Amino acid sequence: MSEPGLVPTRDVSPEEITRYRSDGYLVLRDVVPAAKITAFRDAVREVVARHAEPRPPAPLRDTYAKAFIQVFNAWAFDPRVRELVFDPGLADLAARLMGVPALRLFCDEILYKEPGAGHTPWHQDLSACPFKPNTGITLWIPLCEVSAEMGTMFFARGSHEAGELGPYDISDDTDRDLGAFVREQKLACVDTGPMRPGDLSFHDGWLVHGANENRTETLREVIVLHYFPDGQRVALPTNPTRERLLGAVAPHLQPGDLADCELWPRVPR
In which domain of life is the source organism classified (predicted)? Predict the structure, then answer.
């Protein structure tokens, strides 16, 4: 194992690994010194300023567009952000939780919730991934203090056990259908609570989850890393997002090929 970068001493215990696999999520507090995380804020802000796509006026946005400002693959735009995204200590924690020897990065996402931004609908992250088998883990990294009023995440505990619940994009439809599933199955809905720079939240890619609206006057600044196990293969896309992402990221890959390309790199650990 390489030198663990941002996480020089913190490990996950067997009990935490068991809890992650049972519940589908794990929130770890004070894993990284806060100053080491906030040091990346300016670089992330510059990427957002340069690369966030224009959005329609607020009254014309759909639920998804009202939820956040979003930039994918910030690591490709700025070497400082790349340092964070490819930190081996973060990848090592994710690999230990999944119980796999090696990970690839599916993408990073900058997710800024502006003051007054709406809720993030119920969804499953792996609905975007065109892989077989399709497994993965998401790491949510706050770059600022995130109070309960700023848009913290909430999880349907244990919902990852159901696997894929619908091949659809995050939308009002996922909010309706997955919300109905959570209610019908009487699953506990658990909020992360306030989070600080240095805290990390991991969740299984099939976990049904969402985020609250930002009810404050402060911008919520978060970067999210999506990992998948090395060795997965490309599957035939079954929804528009999978088709679009495969065409944009790896148009040369066909169903059955190893998910191996420049924009899905192995992450050191």
Answer: Bacteria
Residue by residue, DSSP assigns 159-188 as: GGGG----S--SSHHHHHHHHHHHHHTTPP
Residues in the chain: 269
Distance of CA 234 to the CA centre of its chain: 20
With respect to residue 2, please indicate whether it lies within any of the assigned structural domains. no
Highest mean pLDDT among 3-17, 159-173, 216-230: 216-230
What is the Rg, in whole angstroms, of the alpha carbon atoms belonging to the chain?
A: 17
Q: Tokens 């796999």 correspond to what residue? A: 100
Number of domains within the chain: 1
Global pTM reads 0.95
Structural domain containing residue 50: 14-249
Q: How confident is the model at residue 2 (pLDDT cuts 50, 70, 90)?
A: very low
**pLDDT tens, position by position, 135-146:** 999 999 999 999
Within-domain flag for 265: no
The pLDDT value recorded for residue 8 is 56
| Residue 9 within any structural domain of the chain | no
- CATH (domain of 130): 2.60.120.620
3 state DSSP class of 193:
coil
List the one residue out of 213, 227, 16, 207 whose CA is nearest residue 101: 227
